[in-house]
Design brief:
Elements lengths: L9 H10 L7 H29 L6 H10 L2 E2 L10 E2 L1
Helix pairs in contact: 2-3
């Protein structure tokens, strides 16, 4: 598998970072963020696949995503079952 996230451009990463409060970003930081995004998305997809295989279906559903995120300690909605972890 080719490990690349070059299609996520520096301006798009800067826009997302500005929404989070970042003023400026170096080129080294952009490459680090790309690598981090690749790793996190790759691991999340592996977890989604494991959850999906456990449910016995072939189609990935939103509940598979939410379950995989919950396994990794992220709850997207307040008040959802088992929300003892951090909220994204």
């Amino acid at each position: 598998m080719k490990k690349t996230m070059n299609n996520i451009t520096k301006p798009s990463l800067q826009r997302m970072s500005r929404q989070a409060g970042v003023k400026t970003m170096s080129d080294d930081c952009v490459n680090t963020i790309r690598n981090l995004l690749y790793t996190e998305v790759y691991n999340l997809c592996n977890d989604i696949t494991k959850v999906n295989n456990h449910t016995g279906t072939k189609t990935i559903m939103p509940t598979d995503l939410y379950t995989a995120l919950r396994i990794n300690g992220v709850v997207l909605a307040e008040g959802s079952p088992n929300d003892t972890t951090r909220t994204a």
